[in-house]
Fold each of these.
Amino acid sequence: MRKRYHLTTFGCQMNEHDSERMKGMLESIGYGEAATRDQADLILFNTCSIRENADNRFVAHLGEAKRLKAQDPTRVVGVGGCWAQSVKEEVFARFPFVDVAFGPGQVHKLAEFLTSDSLSAQGFFEFEGFTGHLPAKRAREFQAWVQISVGCNSVCSYCIVPSTRGREVSRPTDELVAEARALAADGVREVTLLGQNVNSYGRDLPRERRTSFAELLTRIDAIEGLERIRYTSPHPKDMRIDVIKAHAELRSVCEHIHLPLQSGSGTVLKRMRRTYTRERYLDRVALIREHVPDCALTTDIIVGFPRETEEDFRQTLEVAEEVGYDGAFTFVYSPRRGTEAATLPDQVPHEVQVERMERLVEVIQRRAHERAQRFVGRRVAVLVEGTSRTDPSRLRGRSRHNKVVNFDGLAAPGDLVEVLITGASSQTLTGEASLVSRASG
Ligand code: SAH
Ligand code: SF4
Ligand code: F3S
C-alpha cells in the first residue's frame, strides 16, 4: 500500500515554499498526502524559530506525534526547518521519538533517508541545496512561490535567521526565468519571488552572470501569461530607484511594497544593526510615493527591543503615523538563542511591551483604515482565491495592492475579476464583481 505523509507548516512564506517542495519530493518517491496526522506513516513538521511563541506552538504539536508514534512504532517522525536547524542534534536528546531532523538547506536529504534502509535517527544540517530545485506540489494552481535566493548576509542583532538559513546564495537568473516560464505555461498567474533580502539578489553571482533584482523583475515581467509579480522581503538599505521604477514601469509588478521598518528610532535601529537611519527609511518611502503614488506600503515593526525608551517608541509611532501603512505585522521583541540582542542589558518589561503594542496597533489600524478608503468607488482587479472566510456565499481574492477583497459574484479560483469596491476596513475591502476573465482564457 502507498505510504502517506502529513506535513504541518509553521513560519514564513519561505517555509510555505519549502513545504510545497517537500510535498513534491515525497510524491515523487511514491508517498501520498494523508488528510489527518493519525492516518500518516510519516509525520512531518516544517518549523520556525523566529520568536519564542513559534517554538512553543510547535512543541505542543510534537506531543501528538509522540503519542501516535507510541501507538504505532513503525511511524516515522520528521522535523525540518529553522527550529530544527537551531537546535540540531539536540532534537534527538530532547525528543527521542524523532527519527529524522533536517535544516532548510537539507530538505533533499529527507528523500534519501526515507529510501535508505537506515533505522537509526539521523540529522542533516549543512547549508547545501536550494529547495527551489525540488519538484513542487503547489497549494494553488494559479499562484506560485519562486525562491530566488536562500540565506541572509545581514546581522540584525535580534534575528535567528542568518544562523538557521546560512549565508546568502542567489539562484542563477536563467534558471529562475525558465522556472517562471514553466509556471506560466502550467497555469500560474501570480508569482511571489522569495528571499530574506530580495533586493540584494545577484550580488554573489559570478561577474559575467550578475543580474540585479530590478533586471530579474524585468525578465520575469516579459513572460507571457504571468499577470502579477510580488516579492518579499526587500531590505530598506538595498531599496534602490531601479526597483521602485520597476513598479511604475513593468506591467505585472504589483503596486505593493513590504518595507520592514522594525523601529522608528535611530538609536534602536543602530542597536538592531539595521544599517539604515530613520531618515534614509523615510527617504525611501518618499521615493516610492513619488514614482508610484498609489503604491500600498506594509511593514514589520518590533516593539520593546532591549533598552527601547518611551521616547524611542514615540518615534516609531511617529513614523507609523507619518507613513500611513496599508497594513503592518507588529511583534513583541523575543530574545532568541545565539543572537546579540538576547545578551543586551535592560530588556524591556513585558507589561511595557504589551502596553506599547496596544498603542502601536491603534495607530497602524487607524491609518490603514483611512488609507483603505481611497479604494471605495474604484474598480479593482481581484485574483480570486476562494470563498470568503466569514461568509461562504461570497468570494474572496486579492487586489494588486495585496488587499483582501470579499465580494458578491460568480467566479472560480484563479479567475481575475473586476470588482467595484463599496466598503473598506483596515484589513479588507468589500465589493461587487462586474467583469470576469477566466483562468483558462
Ligand atoms: N528577512 C525578512 C524577514 C525576517 S523575519 C526581513 O528582514 O524583513 C520577519 C519579521 O519577524 C522581521 O521583519 C521582524 O520584524 C520579526 N522578528 C525577527 N526576529 C524577531 C525577534 N527576535 N523578536 C520579535 N520579532 C522578530
Ligand atoms: Fe533577519 Fe535582518 Fe536577515 Fe531579515 S535582514 S532575515 S531581519 S537578519
Ligand atoms: Fe521563516 Fe521562521 Fe525561518 S520566519 S526564515 S521559518 S525562523
Amino acid sequence: MMQRSASPRPPRAAGWLGLLLAASLVGGLVAGCASSASANGMRSSRSGGTASAAGRPAGQPSGTASPAAGTAQPERPASAARPASPVSTPAAQPLAGKVIVLDPGHNGGNGSHPAIIDRLVNVITEWKPCDTAGAQTDAGYPEHAFSFNVAVRLARLLRADGAKVILTRRNDHGVGPCVTQRARIGNRAHADAAISIHADGGPPTGRGFEVIAPGLVPGHNGAIIGPSHRLALDIRNAYHRLTREPYSDYVGTRGLDVRTDLGGLNLSTVPKVFIECANMRDAADAARLTSPRFRQRVAVALAAGFVAFLVPDSHP
Ligand code: ZN
C-alpha cells in the first residue's frame, strides 16, 4: 500500500494537466483519478522523527537479491527452450541491453523503526514519511514480504530475458530506504523502466489491482509522463490478462490511476509506475497473495508487461 495524502488534490497548476493526462490514460472514461486519492481510506500516523534514514547509498544496490529470500521457481518455458548456443539472439533475450529497476515496497524492519521511517522527506508536492511499514493480510502476511518475494522472482525472469536488473533493497529485514532514495536509485541507473511493487491495505469489501502512473509535477517529471503512461498500460494489460486479477473495484478506473502525491513517482526521471497487486484485506485476494504459485504468476505477468513496453514488436 502507499500512504495517500491527507490533502489528496494535486497542486492547482498541475490539476488540469493531471486531469487531461488521467483522462487520456483511461480512455476518457473518468477524469480526475489523481484527485480521487481519498478513496481507499488508508492512513498511517505521521510523526516527525529526526533520525536519519538507514537507506543504502545510491548506486550501491546491485541486482543480486539474496537467493535465500526467494523460493526457487522454474523458469518460463520460453527460457527453458532457449537454444544452447552461447550467442544470444534477440528472440532469446528480448531485454538485452535494457536496465530495469525493481522497487519492492516497504521493508521488514520498518515497523520496528518508526523514528527512521516516519522522518518527513520532500516529495515536491508535499512532505511525507520516508517510508511506511506497509499493509498485511488479516492473518498477518506482510506486504513487505510479498513485494520482495515478487521482486526476486521477477528479477530472475527479466535477467533470463537479458535485462540488467537492480533492486532497491537487498533483503526483507532492513529499514527503508526512503521513497526519495528509491526514486534516486532508478534515476542513477538510467533505467529504461522502473516499478514499485505493492499490495494494498484497502477496505475489507474491496478487491482487485491497480497500476498507478505519475501525474505531471511541472518542472520535475514532464519528460517521463508519456512513457510512464505507456508503461502503465502495458503493465495493466499484461497483469490483467495473465493473472486474471480483476481491476480494483474501490480505487482507480479499469485498473489505472494517476497520482501526484507519491515521491517514488514525483522524483523519478525514468519511466516508472506503481502497482498494487491486490487488496491484502480482501479474503479472496489474500488467499492469492499468500500463494507462491500466484506470486510467480504475478512475476510472469509483470515481466510480460516490461517486454511489451521495452520491445513493442513483441506485443501479443
Ligand atoms: Zn505498499
